Amino acid sequence: MTTNHHGRALSDQQARRRVASAMLVGTTLEWYDFFLYGTAAALIFNKQFFPSLSPAAGTLAAFSTFAVGFVARPIGGLVFGHFGDRVGRRNTLIVSLLMMGIASTLIGVVPNYASIGVWAPVLLVLLRVVQGIGLGGEGAGATLMSMEHAPADKRNLYAGFPQMGTPAGLVLANIVFLTTNALMPSGAFDAWGWRIPFLLSGVLVAVGLAIRLHIEESPSFSKVVSHHKVETFPLREALRVGVVRMGLTLGLMVANSAVAYVFMVFTLSYGTKQLDYNRSFLIVCVSVAAVIWFATIPWWTGVADRSGRRTMFVGGSIALLIWCVLFLPMMNTGSAVLTAVAFLGMGLIIPVTHSVQGAIIADTFPAAVRYSGTSLVLQLGAILGGGLAPIISSALVGESDGSAGVTVYLIAICLISLVSAVILFRRTEPSASATQVDEASAA
Predict the structure, then answer these.
(1) Domain housing 385
(2) Measured between alpha carbons, how far is 208 from 30 in angstroms, rounded to an integer?
(3) Which parts of 108-242 fold into alpha helices (H)?
(4) What tens digit of pLDDT does each residue of 121-156 get?
(5) Which keywords are on file for this protein (predicted)?
(6) What's the CATH number where 15 sits?
(7) Total domains in the fold of the chain
(8) CA-CA distance, 252 to 258, in Å (whole number)?
């Protein structure tokens, strides 16, 4: 039994659910901020902050500021990972949420290029760096908090709750973006109305902070403290798992990240500028696919808990590769129906591997260094996958004036992840209980 902040007793199950819910809410709000920037970068920022560039160059510059957030994420991962392993998961997650919310709110008041010239994109990039650092601390920490509170037979399920924050944040960002756009007079949204969703972030983060303040510290970290096993330099100890295993784990996750950001961000720019699709139509397609993504994560994590991750992850990787062959050609037909099907297919396939990748990475490391190790892998994977994907895709389209190069790029990165997963699962036991790792680390 444990107690809540009013001193009333909570059952272990209630406490676990409270933590899982708090992690879901917090990650949803942080991803709302992150994806809101991505949508604005695809559709708005080229005109507001890079008006002197051509449309293609302006879009590439806007996506570059989007990528800056990914470059900053390893910094956040290293800093928050260190303190998460030294002083605890809970407090570091509170700080990460505050950083993201404050940065996003300030983006809503940054003057545009017409007002302050080159300082406008400079301020935008600086705030994007703060966003990236905040999210770098969130991804691993939220997964660990939820997973480390879970019963031994449901660790994939609980680790999946923070993963659900990714599509939930995307849907929330797109709903707010679309609603604000629909309610504004013609031209007003592009001129100043885009700021409203960013300003709303301040209110949403206050709600998330109130929830996150009332959860208990991770039992695994508490056990490490009680056994006096806190590491002075946790990242150094995390690296002892070996370069090969770290590399395979990193390779395993890059495809899901890259494909997701092509599907969520790059297609908004490509579809509107190259294929003349309506902006709202594409955002709705992405949002409906994200709802499917969100809804199916508990199913897939349940499958992983019952049957193991190996077959499910490898099968999902193969399905993702096949759908990448079809995805952009279906968009290129100009058919709204085929385009919608292409997006819905992504919504069905992406969660198969995304749902358990956080748990797979976390189970690579013992509890005493798990935050540091997991953060490093997650954030490097995010850069190599999601951070570079929109830029690479935009450059490939600019070179060839078509999407064939992007399709080849997605196939190549899917093959990297598939091969990495097969080799990793042959070298290790993918369903090994993290409880055993925790016990070993505390012994």
Answers:
(1) 2-442
(2) 9
(3) 113-116, 119-148, 155-183, 188, 195-212, 219-226, 234-238
(4) 888 888 888 888 888 888 788 888 889 888 888 889
(5) Cell membrane, Membrane, Symport, Transmembrane, Transmembrane helix, Transport
(6) 1.20.1250.20
(7) 1
(8) 12
